[in-house]
Amino acid sequence: MALQNGKKPVSNLSSALASIHISRDSQNNGDPALYNDYNQHNIPHYDHSINQQQYSDYGPPQNQLNIPVDRIAEYRNNPPTEGISLFSHRSAPNGFKVAVVLAELGIKFRTFFLDFKKNEQRSPYYISMNPNARVPAIIDHDNGDHAVWESGAILIYLCQRSARENPLYSDDFIEQSSINSWLFYQASGHAPMIGQALHFRYFHPEMIPSAVERYTSEVRRIYAVVEMRLAEIREQMIMEMDDERFSLGTSALSESRYFDDPIWLVGNRITVADLCFVTWNHVVDRIGINLKVEYPEVYKWTAHMLSRPQVIRALSGLESN
Questions:
Q1: pLDDT tens digits, residue range 155-183?
Q2: Which of 140, 151, 245, 273 qualifies as a cystine partner to 265, CB 3.0-4.6 A?
Q3: Taking the complete model, does pTM exceed 0.90, yes or no?
Q4: Full residue range of the structural domain in which residue 254 is found
Q5: Does the record's keyword annotation contain Magnesium (predicted)?
Q6: Single residue among 161, 182, 214 that ends a domain in this structure
């Protein structure tokens, strides 16, 4: 999809979440400068003026008689002949997580944004490929229209699909297990806890402070685990690559020339172990967590990922690379 009027693409994920009303107190809990800093790397801004039709051009429009059209049925009856179809939602970090990996792997894909207000996720045609009736799901048109659902399973499938050409995974059994550990940690803990914190802050019919506190505290615990791992990797890198004053403890690590260099959870390169976190990190300020202040290594790690061209592209909602 071409950009219109020469404007930079907006973050489709951020735009959808930006429509959530945040009270003055909630705003003060976050750091308004957090994503201003990220935006030095041209990360898409929150944008309330997004044109929904621009990101939803699968299937025919509603006809003039207002007879409902099953867009998914139309799509399934006339699917693409190649690439991957990603079924997602405009405010679903898990859907954009898959888009990030698709873009990074250079796999041709298009995104079908479901309309939850019309219960499209409960279409019999959608449930036939995803019995959980949630997003994301994919159909691989290069492999007999094979369907995969659940974000973690999709990421592993995409990595295995790319095999030896895949820079984001590993053909080493031991390294695979390390990558998978972080992948499952993110899918089973990080994402659900942020999701619950968002729910009880903005969508639950009544305010339950204990629920907000419980889930926000759990998100902080999860980030502390990641922060510790990244800090250990940072220290090891400085000890190995910088001069001996750091190993002797006569200089603070923050003075090292490697203090802001990118570091990754597994090995010396970015993998899906890192990328699976990025879309949720991109919205965690919505629950009052300030990554820059509270988890500085997580913040730097996230900033490096958000500066990658394919990550920017995936967050913009562009349907194909």
A1: 999 999 997 778 899 999 999 999 999 99
A2: 273
A3: no
A4: 173-316
A5: no
A6: 161
